[in-house]
């Protein structure tokens, strides 16, 4: 014999019905979880929301929230999280790196030297190539002279320059004389340099 259930809603008591009918009423929202149901002919009563056979057919106590019904505070959290993600943007940083690379590429000078590997032949005789040399001769106000920042006497200047000329392919002498040095002193140093074989003589001046 099928089990019969009695439904009681406030002051109204329904006739006993089968479980499938009771479930149909629950599905059609005719039964509230706070209604009373008896399965033993009215001797004991239980809340409809606590009867296992009806739980899945009763309406939920907390209806599902639609998108419009979502609390504003919760929406705010979503928006704040979305904004925090949008802040992490690598595109501007990548653009800056490319701009720096372009800047350095345009302002830098690249010189490519092509070197050919060769095995030079050996010989017992030959002359070593000599390098050109630039010397500085300073003349102080008191007449004292310095060759490459080393003091030297006027009589020894010609021999010192001759030794350097013999060891170099070409010597350029730069004369730096003080503004108070007599013109004749400078001419004397130029004459000694020519006698020693210096090919090129330069005199430094200050630009106005």
């Amino acid at each position: 014999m099928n089990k019969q259930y009695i439904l009681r809603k406030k002051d109204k008591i329904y006739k006993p019905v089968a479980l499938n009918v009771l479930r149909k009423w629950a599905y059609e929202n005719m039964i509230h979880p706070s209604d009373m149901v008896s399965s033993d002919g009215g001797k004991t009563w239980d809340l409809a929301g606590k009867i296992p056979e009806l739980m899945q057919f009763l309406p939920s106590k907390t209806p599902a929230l639609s998108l419009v019904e979502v609390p504003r505070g919760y929406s705010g959290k979503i928006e704040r999280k979305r904004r925090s993600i949008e802040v992490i943007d690598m595109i501007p940083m990548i653009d800056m790196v490319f701009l720096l690379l372009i800047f350095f590429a345009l302002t830098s000078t690249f010189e490519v030297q092509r070197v050919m590997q060769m095995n030079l032949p050996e010989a017992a005789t030959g002359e070593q190539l000599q390098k050109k040399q630039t010397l500085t001769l300073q003349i102080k106000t008191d007449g004292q002279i310095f060759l490459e920042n080393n003091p030297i006497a006027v009589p020894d200047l010609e021999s010192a320059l001759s030794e350097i000329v013999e060891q170099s392919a070409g010597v350029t002498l730069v004369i730096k004389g003080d503004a108070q040095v007599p013109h004749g002193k400078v001419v004397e140093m130029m004459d000694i340099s020519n006698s020693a074989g210096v090919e090129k003589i330069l005199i430094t001046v200050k630009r106005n």
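Strands lie at 4-9, 12-13, 17-18, 36-38, 46-47, 133-139, 145-147, 150-152, 171-177, 200-203. Confidence is low (pLDDT under 50) at residues 62-70, 74-79.
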